[in-house]
Design brief:
Helix 14 packs antiparallel against helix 15. This protein has 20 helices and 23 strands. 34% of the residues lie in helices and 19% in strands. The strands form four sheets. It has a seven-stranded parallel beta sheet with strand order 12-13-11-14-15-10-16. It is an alpha/beta fold and 562 residues long.
């Protein structure tokens, strides 16, 4: 029908006309089986992928239901061949089931012997048997394979790479009970009431709370309150909870939020990090400490400690980091219910399916601009400033290797003049100067007489700087990539990006997110790029994220002394 909002294309993309009468209704209908790729002003682009169809299958959707939805909202006839392929893809989910070895009562403890892969289709059994990378993990059984509990995530990840998403029906523990109640009023005195989309996200993850359900990923913009989604789920489950996050500063932010917005006492919350090691009904740990070991052949001593606890929920903060090999062992802590939180699952290495197999499918997503339009995150004005290389660097740049070219362009010394000018022009703003290279950041910090935070900055000093910034005593901070993740600086209103990790859209999302806490005025996001260098190409890739989320950005050319 001409007034319908969807245009389904033969490459499995779906175009959504946001101005059509049934646009919101159609958006809600396709979200369970289609991934949002781009959301500019007028037409949003979704894509149906094997992973999105497996997400749908895990939620109980049938191929015919997806086909009916597309027919109902499509403006034109559905291209032939698309719908027919849904059944083949979705049928792969559930062909391999994972259950507790010798126990299907959903009451397996961490001490039980292991898990079973149940495979009833002989052809699928033969295919799995032939995967060389799985031989050391699997032992044949009558209609499947036995594996040790510690290899749970590794096996699931390998199987999804082979095109076989595992239906995981093997919960580990019920978890000890714990009373978690959300406050109506924060300790700070402010009224507290979770937002509608935060409740929707929690319900999307938990489903009916039956055994074997209640796991998955929530993707929400930085500044929109992902932590609160975690607390809502904790209050719904009433169980011991382990929270894994990226650094000590993030650990302390979780503790502050839990104390401020729940009735949990300080005795019920513990920190397990390089600074402090204690365990309580709610324990917040860093990925680094849980995956530490003395050498490559040694066991993970801190991992053993956490396996001895009866957790009922594990929250993976910044879950997009989980596929990194050093963090992968944390995925073995798959409790009855597990929650992944992230601003974006975008990965330049295409490893998004690892999160599906290690934590669960994506259960909730929302366009950033939708939340901006409702005032839940700040409106951001994005500007790219291009400048020339100084004459003295043009020959060194021309003869440098590809990697050195990027560094020379990124560390263009003329960027310092622009940073100084921007800081002077926005003296009323709370400003973050963000970059990749420590030499460049050190020079800027000295030039601006501003505190510098890098990976070498002691945790106590970092927290002091963050607190001074929150109180307004410090208006400007220079930060390395350590500030990309899980740092709550609600008053930050402007960011200047002087260098970045090549073309990472995921990093662009995180850095923009640092200034998106709701405020009465627009947030400003500047990126400095050396003109006619490889930095322009990488910047273009990074800016795909901005365009895909509906952000406009302008390009300015600054001519300064050479």
């Amino acid at each position: 029908m001409p007034e319908n909002p969807l245009i389904v294309q033969s490459d499995r993309t779906i175009l959504l006309d946001v101005h059509a009468e049934k646009a919101e209704e159609a958006r809600s209908a396709i979200l369970p089986f289609a991934e949002l790729e781009k959301s500019p002003e007028h037409i949003h682009t979704y894509r149906i992928t094997p992973l999105s169809l497996w997400n749908a299958a895990s939620a109980g959707l049938k191929p015919e239901e997806i086909a009916a939805t597309l027919v109902r909202y499509s403006r034109y006839q559905i291209p032939s061949g698309i719908v027919e392929s849904f059944s083949d893809t979705m049928s792969r989910y559930g062909k391999i089931r994972m259950i507790a070895a010798g126990d299907t009562s959903n009451d397996l403890s961490f001490d039980d012997s292991g898990l079973l892969l149940i495979i009833e289709d002989p052809a699928v059994y033969s295919e799995v048997e032939a995967v060389k990378s799985l031989e050391k993990y699997l032992t044949k059984t009558t209609n499947g394979f036995f594996l040790k509990l510690v290899n749970r995530g590794t096996v699931k990840q390998e199987l999804i790479q082979q095109g076989w998403p595992v239906k995981d029906e093997a919960p580990l523990v019920k978890g000890d009970s714990l009373t978690v109640t959300l406050r109506d009023q924060c300790l700070s005195g402010k009224a507290f009431s979770p937002r509608d989309y935060q409740h929707e996200a929690a319900r999307a993850v938990l489903g009916d709370c039956s055994p074997g359900t209640g796991y998955g990923v929530v993707s929400l913009p930085c500044g929109s309150g992902k932590t609160i989604v975690g607390m809502i789920i904790m209050s719904m489950l009433q169980t011991n909870t382990l929270i894994l996050t990226t650094n000590v500063a993030a650990v302390h932010q979780w503790i502050d939020e839990l104390m401020d917005k729940t009735t949990l006492s300080s005795e019920e919350i513990a920190e397990y990090s390089g600074d402090s090691k204690s365990v309580a009904p709610v324990t917040i740990a860093t990925y680094q400490i849980i995956t530490w070991r003395p050498d490559r052949k040694a066991d993970f001593p801190h991992f053993k400690i956490f396996r001895e606890r009866q957790w009922g929920l594990i929250i993976y903060d910044e879950v997009h980091l989980l596929p990194a090999p050093v963090f992968r062992v944390t995925a073995e802590l798959q409790a009855v219910r597990r929650l992944g939180l992230t601003a974006t699952l975008i990965r330049e290495d295409g490893a998004e399916n690892a999160v599906f197999s290690l934590v669960g499918p994506k259960r909730y997503d929302v366009p950033w601009k939708d939340l901006e339009g409702k005032g839940w995150i700040a409106e951001a004005i994005c500007t790219e400033i291009r400048l020339d290389l100084p004459q003295s660097l043009k020959i060194p740049y021309a003869v440098a290797s590809s990697r050195e070219k990027y560094r020379i362009a990124s560390e263009n010394p003329l960027k310092e003049d622009i940073v100084v000018q921007l800081v002077e022009n926005h003296s009323d703003d709370q400003i973050l100067i963000i970059g990749q290279y420590l030499t460049q950041l050190g020079s800027l910090a000295k030039l601006l007489n501003a505190p510098l935070i890098t990976g070498q900055t002691p945790n106590a000093e970092r927290e002091k700087i963050y607190k001074n910034f929150k109180r307004g005593e410090t208006k400007l901070i220079v930060v390395s990539r350590v500030a990309n993740f899980a740092i709550d600086l609600p008053d930050a209103s402007m960011a200047v990006q002087v260098s970045g990790s090549f073309g990472s859209r995921q990093e662009e999302a995180q850095r923009l997110g640092r200034i998106l806490r709701p405020k009465k005025y627009n947030a400003l996001f500047y990126t400095l790029v050396s003109r006619q260098t490889v930095e322009e190409d990488f910047a273009a890739n990074r800016q795909k994220f901005l365009a895909e989320q509906g952000y406009k950005y302008s390009i300015q050319h600054w001519d300064i002394g050479k």
